[in-house]
């Protein structure tokens, strides 16, 4: 008996729908299980903190939490502050911030075992007994590194990443993992598994990303030291938005073994591992600990350059380049004021400030950064989303990566007269030949050398730059992928760059924002103006930059900016 063709086709369609439904149901089950584990983690943290409080009612957690990292670590090493007092004080505070901001994805239960072992350690490292939070994408043995992807659930890392191994050898106690945006290619912090992380200073604002969970936890006081990554500002956005400090080192200064990347294999835009903390001295202490023989022996691709104390502690007046705008993303009034006021403070302190002319940032953004990260037309990026139910904050790049070449060409041509930046993004997302990729890498190298030549012609030590801020409203980063120009430039150049909060948004800044037009006066500029609004009292940072491999000089400059800002302000 013959079955009519429509019936066969109808049956196939029904079967296909059934398979899709079953696959989605299985994915939702994995998400639900992960969320249950997250809830269980918070329950365990609450139980551990409560148990300690009941057994030690005289311990004053607030006094412990108020100690800066250098003082805390000294007290831990000399025995004047017990390890468990510090550990459980931070477990309790981290729990509070996690409930408020949804920044923690997992409590590392083995940290309690490590705490007991640390008490028996004969050799005490620089971070002895210090609780440290770890970004989701950095491997911790026995735990998932999801990058916000459902497919990465239930795939625990076989071993610790090198940076986590070194932290442990230095006596640190990694105790939680923190949230990230799906794929990491976003400066918001949301994924389908763990949801949206909120800014601890204003819950309607994003904490930044992709190290957003770290920014929220450290910014809220629930972690004294966090470890994250940066491929376009992913350390600097969370630090600036949450009112703390961070440094993105030169790409290979710290090991990236066991650190998961958003776009694997691309070499055009350098990624880096780095710390976040409340103050610059804490960042310096972290780099002292990490730049050790342990790091160099565990990963021989890391150059054996120990922390240069002489450079960091120098008091020699600096010759500092500066600029107020990159002429691509118009700075908010508060951003421009932050640079101007910091420049004045530095000049009054005896440093020399020299204007630096920044050119061709539009070309750098589209032809080096976007084209460099998506040289394969975005096909490898698209593959990461296969089988996922959500495209997160990377919607524009995902959609463009999926579009056929003819459609990209047509859209780029049609949109060029009306939305030139959109046209440039589309053009940058085309698939390149091997020869074109090699030519691009050569062009980026030339650009780097030209930038350094301009720097040396002015005889500069460091550079003072704007940092995007204040924190944008939740959801805005997904609409404003072009606003990463101030940070991503230094990933393309692979220069060390850090951020230091220097001021707060004022009523006057808010009033001046009404006249914000942007350089292109396109949809993105109008949207950015809206994203900045309603931010009175939120922190604004500046960016401090040095030449490659000069992290200690970068930190020394950051420390100078921090000290002068603290003298002028009392907002910390």
UniProtKB/TrEMBL annotation:
Family listed: Belongs to the amidase family.
Species of origin: Geospiza parvula
SUPFAM superfamilies: Amidase signature (AS) enzymes
Catalyzed chemical reaction(s): N-(5Z,8Z,11Z,14Z)-eicosatetraenoyl-glycine + H2O = (5Z,8Z,11Z,14Z)-eicosatetraenoate + glycine; (9Z)-octadecenoate + glycine = N-(9Z-octadecenoyl)glycine + H2O; N-tricosanoyl-taurine + H2O = tricosanoate + taurine; N-(15Z-tetracosenoyl)-ethanolamine + H2O = (15Z)-tetracosenoate + ethanolamine
Class in the EC hierarchy, top level: hydrolase
InterPro entries, per the entry: Amidase_CS, Amidase_dom, AS_sf, Endocannabinoid_amidase
Keyword Phosphoprotein applies: yes
UniProt gene name: LOC115906300
Positions of the Amidase domain: 89-555
EC number: 3.5.1.99
Active site as annotated: 135, 210, 234
The keyword Plastid is assigned to this record: no
Organism lineage string: Eukaryota, Metazoa, Chordata, Craniata, Vertebrata
Protein name (Swiss-Prot/TrEMBL): Fatty-acid amide hydrolase 1
Listed transmembrane segments: none
């Amino acid at each position: 008996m013959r079955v009519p063709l429509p019936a066969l086709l109808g049956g196939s369609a029904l079967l296909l729908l059934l398979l899709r439904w079953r696959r989605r149901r299985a994915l939702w089950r994995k998400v639900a299980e992960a969320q249950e584990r997250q809830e269980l983690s918070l329950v365990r943290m609450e139980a551990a903190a409560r148990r300690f409080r009941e057994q030690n009612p005289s311990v004053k957690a607030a006094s412990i939490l108020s100690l800066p990292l250098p003082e805390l670590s000294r007290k831990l090493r000399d025995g004047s502050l017990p390890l468990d007092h510090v550990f459980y004080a931070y477990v309790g505070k981290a729990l509070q911030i996690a409930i408020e901001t949804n920044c923690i994805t997992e409590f590392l239960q083995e940290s309690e075992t490590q705490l007991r072992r640390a008490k028996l350690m004969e050799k005490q490292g620089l971070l002895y007994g210090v609780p440290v939070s770890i970004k989701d994408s950095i491997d911790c043995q026995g735990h998932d590194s999801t990058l916000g992807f459902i497919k990465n659930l239930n795939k625990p890392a076989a071993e610790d990443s090198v940076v986590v191994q070194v932290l442990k050898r230095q006596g640190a106690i990694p105790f939680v993992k923190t949230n990230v945006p799906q794929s990491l290619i976003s400066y918001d912090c949301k994924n389908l598994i763990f949801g949206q992380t909120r800014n601890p200073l204003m819950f309607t604002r994003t904490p930044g990303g992709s190290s957003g969970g770290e920014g929220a936890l450290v910014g809220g006081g629930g972690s004294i030291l966090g470890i994250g990554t940066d491929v376009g500002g992913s350390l600097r956005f969370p630090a600036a938005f949450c009112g703390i400090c961070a440094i993105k080192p030169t790409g290979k200064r710290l090991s990236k073994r066991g650190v998961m990347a958003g776009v694997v294999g691309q070499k055009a835009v350098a990624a880096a591992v780095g710390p976040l903390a409340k103050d610059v001295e804490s960042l310096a202490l972290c780099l002292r600990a990490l730049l050790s023989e342990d790091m160099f022996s565990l990963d021989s691709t890391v150059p054996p350059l120990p922390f240069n104390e002489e450079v960091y502690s120098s008091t020699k007046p600096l010759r500092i380049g500066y600029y107020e705008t990159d002429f691509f993303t118009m700075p908010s009034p508060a951003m421009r004021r932050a640079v101007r006021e910091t420049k004045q403070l530095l000049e009054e302190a005896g440093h020399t400030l020299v204007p630096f002319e920044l050119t061709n940032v539009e070309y750098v953004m589209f032809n080096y950064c976007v084209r460099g990260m998506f040289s394969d037309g975005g096909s490898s990026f698209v593959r990461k989303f296969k089988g996922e139910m959500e495209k997160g904050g990377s919607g524009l790049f995902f959609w463009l990566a999926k579009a056929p070449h003819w459609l990209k060409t047509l859209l780029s041509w049609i949109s060029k007269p009306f939305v030139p930046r959109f046209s440039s993004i589309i053009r940058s997302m085309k698939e390149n030949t091997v020869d074109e990729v090699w030519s691009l890498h050569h062009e980026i190298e030339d650009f780097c050398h030209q930038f350094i030549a301009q720097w040396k012609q002015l005889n500069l030590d460091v550079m003072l730059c704007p940092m995007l801020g204040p924190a944008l409203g939740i959801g805005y980063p997904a609409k404003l992928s072009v606003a990463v120009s101030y940070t991503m430039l230094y990933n393309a150049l692979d220069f060390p760059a850090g951020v230091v909060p220097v001021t707060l948004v004022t009523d006057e800044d808010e009033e001046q924002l009404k006249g914000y037009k942007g350089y292109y006066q396109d949809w993105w500029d109008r949207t950015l103006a809206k994203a900045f609004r309603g931010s009175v009292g939120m922190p604004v940072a500046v960016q401090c930059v040095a030449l490659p491999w000069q992290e200690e000089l970068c930190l020394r400059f950051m420390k100078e900016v921090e000290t002068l800002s603290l003298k002028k302000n009392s907002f910390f």
